[in-house]
Amino acid sequence: MSEAVVLLSGGMDSATAAYEAREQGYEMAALHTSYGQRTEGKEYDCARRIAEELDAADFLHIETDHLSAIGGSSLTDESMAVDDAEESDDEEIPDTYVPFRNANLLSMAVSYAETRGAEAVFIGAHSEDFAGYPDCRPAFFEAFQGVVDTGTKPETTISIEAPYVERSKTEIAERGLELGVPYEHTWSCYRAEAPACGTCDSCSYRLEAFERTGSEDPIPYATD
């Protein structure tokens, strides 16, 4: 069986991407990173649980503080407030953008994949992400594929897979429900480890997605 490395953050998008990888016939090796984000403890627990649910061949947890040290994001800088969804300006890059994060995470995932002989790297980025985050755009992943093809061994073939990059959060939730993703073991809140705040951008997108699917979000919210 072919193997794929899945960037498993602990959120619903990456969890769905992991189940998508399994649906496509891949055995999974999970990569989770703690980089100083506010909810890193909860995210780790969720990522670990999803990896166990999928009987992952390996679970690699990397702790790094360089993105936190660089700063520039409310996810890693406690002195910056995380805006509520209604406070966000759709025409500006959100304060939750971690500068060039996906390039950093994908670089680690490709190193891990090349070492393991994996044939793909899955990431859960989606269309509503790239409305605000420049490193979630289809063009970014296409360009990064070129970097992978150029910068790995000649015999290495690793495909960068962003299966939901043209889909909405609602479509991800619908797909995840079809695949049986245990969303009770995922976490999306930018602010808190329990309960979820219910008002940040990530919570807002998630709650709206479940509402549109006619399903109840199984995690606890402070706004309940």
H/E element sequence: EHEHEHHEHHEHH
The proportion of strand residues reads 5-15%
Radius of gyration (Å): 16 Å
CATH class: Alpha Beta
Low-confidence stretches: none
Percent in helix = 25-40%
Tell me the CATH architecture.
3-Layer(aba) Sandwich
The side-by-side strand order for the widest beta sheet comes to: 3-2-1-4-5
Number of helices in the DSSP assignment: 8
What does this structure look like?
The protein is α/β, with parallel strands linked by helices and 224 residues long. It has a single domain, classed as 3-Layer(aba) Sandwich (Rossmann fold), CATH 3.40.50. Helices cover 40% and strands 11% of the residues. It has a 5-stranded parallel beta sheet with strand order 3-2-1-4-5, with helices on both faces. Helix 1 packs across helix 7 and helix 7 crosses helix 8. The N and C termini lie far apart (44 Å). 43% of the residues are buried. The mean pLDDT is 95.
Provide a concise account of the structure shown.
By secondary structure, this protein is an alpha/beta fold.
List keywords for this structure.
11% strand, 40% helix, 224 residues, alpha/beta, Rossmann fold
What does the secondary structure layout of this molecule look like, with pairings?
Elements: E1 3-7, H1 12-23, E2 27-34, H2 40-53, E3 58-63, H3 66-70, H4 101-116, E4 120-122, H5 127-130, H6 138-151, E5 159-161, H7 169-179, H8 201-213
Parallel strand pairs: 1-2, 1-4, 2-3, 4-5
